[in-house]
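Late entry, evening session. Most of the bench is empty. Finally got around to the prediction I had been postponing all week. Sequence below, unchanged from the version circulated by S.P.
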Amino acid sequence: MDRFSKYLLTGLICIVAFGQFVQVITRYVLQVPVMGLEETMAYPTLWLYILGAVNASREDNHIRANVLEIFLDTTRAHTILAIIGEVISLIVGLWLLSWAWDFTRYAWRVWKESPTLYIPTFYSDVALTVGLALMMLYTASHLWRHLKSLRREKVQ
């Protein structure tokens, strides 16, 4: 899974960078804007943004302001703080996932299309639901890992 996500994110970055390069060349050098390029670039850009957040969740690499860790001395206290953070993240994330699922159902029912090229927007709308679901899976796995770590610390 690591290898797949690495190649997928790299591919999306290349697509977005190439699209921006084409846009700059055609618009500012050739003075001929490509109709619908921004519209098509919105899809890989959105997926890149969401899957980048999923990757940060997978690697447990999110930006955090762990001010409370300064005041904690023991590894056990740090683990308990991490568990509390993961539980809060899971609660908020599941709440957001329920909203995203409602939005996905709405997007499926309405089946909107982009204004210029008539590409169904569902393919970008579903990214939020997929991303949040994956983030919640990774959050739950990190919570499980912290709980196992806390149990091991109790035994010793």
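Two things to note before I forget:
The radius of gyration is 21 Å.
The first helix runs from residue 2 to 29.
Will write this up properly tomorrow.
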